[in-house]
Amino acid sequence: MSNQIETKHLGDVLKNHSQDMTDKVVVITGTTSGTGFVCAREVAKKGATVVLLNRASERSDSSIQQLKEAVPRGKFEGITCDLQNFESVRKAAEAIKAKYQTVDVLVNNAGVMALKDQATADGYDVQMQTNVISHFLLTKELFPLLKKSTQARIVNHSSMARLGGPLERHYFEQKGGDLGGDGTEEENFSFQGPRWLRYHQTKLANANFTYGLKNKMEASEISNIVPLLAHPGLAKTKLQVTSAIDGGMDGQAEFMAMAQSAEDGAAGIIRAAMDPEAKPGDFFGPSGQGWNGFPERLTPEDLLLDESNIKINWDGCEKAVGAFKF
Known about the structure:
This protein has 326 residues and is of the alpha/beta class. It has helices at 10-16, 34-45, 58-70, 86-99, 126-147, 185-189, 194-219, 238-245, 262-265, 267-274, 302-305, 307-321; strands at residues 25-29, 49-54, 75-80, 105-108, 152-157, 225-230, 283-286, 295-298. The protein contains twelve helices and eight strands. It has an eight-stranded mixed beta sheet with strand order 3-2-1-4-5-6-7-8, sandwiched between helices.
């Protein structure tokens, strides 16, 4: 992956905040480009077997070939998983369970941003199902394999968009296509309006899911699974391209001058996946204004830990895909 933006921080993470991953199974969603691709490449270099979950496409096939070329001795397996289809997620989980006895790291990386107000085939908002509910489903389906690991990790990916108002229940309901519309061009290009509100809800929910997992595992006395959270800051990836094509943002926005490389954007989830010092609930990402920089250990905002938000996320996801059994 070529990138004109200088990568400044990934090397430090790999040198000082990672570990040997030989014999570990790492499952990552959304690896065709961007942060997921970089994460897959780097954990493979450390010896992990990497399971790549993406929609079936030429782009997916091409990315696997690129990973194999980047890491000739790497162990990669692609499994079809469409996060906009619950049945596809369940089938992907079954395929993993049929082949692997344990999962050591699950990286819930994939996401879409500021898409139109449209429903998936399951009836949910396309952003909420892709970014949140399907990752909840995948995590609950793979939880028995995570429990078998000596020390497993669940890494959720949030963003700066987590900051804002609290979660609202109706975004988790089968109301896709009836959640505020598409907004005006002015709203979309200034990162306001209903598209961006829906995106905010998903990125806050990713964080609330992490701390909901932490609370429930502590209550169940499960100590061998570490829930972790990361955010990429502002990283130049296909995420902006997809949103711009859909009309959700200005593809030439001046603020992209603050963007860091996809490699540095991935540094947070890579640290979460491999830092031997990581503890339950650790949150890694650029500090300060949060747009770029080294993935520090951050203090989660009150909104991320709020019991009401955690409950709205948990209840909404369980209503959609069933109870999460510990």
